[in-house]
Design brief:
heterodimer; A: about 110 residues; mainly beta; six-stranded mixed beta sheet; five-stranded antiparallel beta sheet; 11 strands; globular; B: about 110 residues; four-stranded antiparallel beta sheet; about 0% helix
């Protein structure tokens, strides 16, 4: 599987602050980039996703920024809340019906 | 979003035994995927299950250890055979949203082998 590199491994953010998680990919055929949120004991839940035809997608407090030339994409969580504390995974795939390649995950802790 | 029901949600098994995990999707999907998530780790693809054909396994995973069935377009099973403590992980099934790439996951099966 092609690699997706995710950083940082862990992140501590003050309540109300901005959480930023970065991912980089190698395979230029990737055309779908989702982010998943996983709470302990639960399966990953699709949070937000982007395709290469746009550079940014926003849904509520969550924004994906995408840089096709740099082969990088990032998740920004605005006004971070303690309830956002979870592990976040970026992923990528190169077409429908193909499996996702996951980053290693970022454990986010939002402290009051 | 697709609804994926996976069971059992957790199990504690004796080494040397086998466990079959079931995954039911609320819509017909061509592909289903099985992942393993070891403690504190990311998701690793075990195999792709296509209805009507044998599953395709990733490097490091073999059919004798992880046999998969895909009898129809909404259901799949993964069996973890001859278990050892190293098989203790969360096992997850996934399916794309119909007509798209968006992948949804079941809640996972937390397996502990003792």
């Amino acid at each position: 599987q092609q690699q997706v590199k995710q950083s940082p491994q862990s992140l501590i953010v003050q309540k109300g602050g901005i959480s930023i998680i970065n991912c980089a990919y190698e395979n230029t055929a990737f055309d779908y980039f989702p982010w998943y949120q996983q709470f302990p004991g639960k399966g990953p839940a699709l949070l937000i996703a982007i395709r290469p035809d746009v550079s940014e997608k926003k849904e509520g407090r969550f924004t994906i920024s995408f840089n096709k030339s740099a082969k990088q994409f990032s998740l920004h969580i605005m006004d971070s809340q303690p309830g956002d504390s979870a592990t976040y995974f970026c992923a990528a795939a190169d077409s429908g019906n193909t499996p996702l390649v996951f980053g290693k995950g970022t454990r986010l802790s939002v402290i009051a | 979003s697709a609804v994926i029901s996976q069971k059992p949600s957790r199990d504690i098994c004796q080494r040397g035994t086998s466990l079959t995990i079931q995954c039911q999707v609320d819509s017909q999907v061509t592909m289903m995927f099985w992942y393993r998530q070891q403690p504190g780790q990311s998701l690793t693809l075990i195999a792709t299950a296509n209805q009507g054909s044998e599953a395709t396994y990733e490097s490091g995973f073999v059919i004798d250890k992880f046999p998969i069935s895909r009898p129809n377009l909404t259901f799949s099973t993964l069996t973890v055979s001859n278990m050892s403590p190293e098989d203790s992980s969360i096992y997850l099934c996934s399916a794309p949203h119909s007509g798209g790439t968006e992948a949804f996951f079941g809640q996972g099966t937390r397996l502990t082998v003792v």
